[in-house]
Structure prediction request, 491 residues.
Amino acid sequence: MPPDYWQTLRLTLALAACTTALLLVLGLPLAYALAYGRSRFKPLVEAVVSLPLVLPPTVIGFYLLVAFSDSSALGRFLIEKLGVSLNFTFPGILVGSLVYSLPFMVQPLQAGFGQVPRSLREAAYTLGKSRLTTLWRVLLPNMRPALLNGLVLTFAHTLGEFGVVLMIGGSLPGTTRVASIAIYDEVQSLHYAQANAYALTLLSVAFVILVALYWLTRRDALRRS
Amino acid sequence: MLQALHTAAGPRTLDVRLTLLPGELLALSGPSGAGKTTLLRLLAGLDRPAGGFIRAAGHTWYDAARRHWLPPQQRPLGYVFQDYALFPNMTVRENLAFAAAGQPQAARLIADLLESLELTELAARRPAVLSGGQQQRVALARALARRPRLLLLDEPLSALDLPTRQRLQQVLAEVHRQFELTTILISHDPAEIARLADRVLELELGQVRRLGAPASAPAPLLGRVVAVLPDGRLRVQLAGAATVEIAAPANRAVTIGEELRFELVG
Prediction:
């Protein structure tokens, strides 16, 4: 067992949990707007949301690193006015993870909204229900598989992220060194057994999460049929 | 209560001027694409007209000139969708309770509706396990749970088999009277329109083709009885060679070879 195994694992899970929770809050309104909105800027927003799927993580990490540093206006504002320095901190890698995993939350939710029959939404409106009540009582309960998909994929995807975290956070044990980076460090130092401990953990966690997802989705489908 | 509507929708122009009389049941008929559903959706506020106005009982729901538009939530109406649109995540009772939330004496209202639409025994079931006719009754009960003044029905009976349809026509007529509603019903069935509607509005390509009393029931057919079947029904030969099976008249005996006037139902 590597010396700071538990510390690294705690940090990894904390990052994944915080990313998933925050992305649910941010992703729901965004997915709702993309699913039902008719703005002509929609393709533009969809492209921005999907960019992390196709960009190398190092590109996202690089631009965030620059944006958070005092060489950019945003960075200077954060550091001088708010006293927040994001590079090489946990909040920094959290912001990076939010950007990196955004499509994994928004795309399933957007598809889920699209699959709820339009008449259900309209029926709720003709019954006098607000958009918020309709979202809460009608839409979300009838898109549970999509909701579950978004949550699980975001969590699992954040567990496996490497490039963004490395660029913004470096590898500070207990602060920014997540499991995937620890594996890289251990291999660089030729500690293959330690690397294997992390790798096996990530593999098992990811596998268990995906089995749970597919099992729950199947159970939900069976209950509805 | 509805005064007039003048609107453009899609490539064709739906142009309807109509004044509904309080308490009347108006049937909307016409070929598909005529604008029947669009008209209901505009009334309900699910789509926004391109021009004109909608007024109801002294309230303006829509007025293009004054740029006024009332969202569907604020229009006191009930809408029964063609696919019923029952909430799959709620039981029958929960569907009604969701609709009745905020109404005075909601619990009493729900119990009454379940009772009068014969849904009490199905109250704990989810919509997915109900038959088409049962789902239709739930959709109707749910629309009534908001105590609407105007009831809009988009082909509520078209997907049902004949006996169910006839029973639900009766239910509709009773509900319309009992709840003192003004009702608009989309229907393709002349018999149904003749049975239920006070007036009929025939639409074609967005234009009003006819507005008036429903056509009277179809003229009775004349045929010759060729056989009395073991179950008591009659086989009757029409002019030409075609034969149909009909129920025997209840009030007298029939002999083979006799000429008979009868109506085909449905």
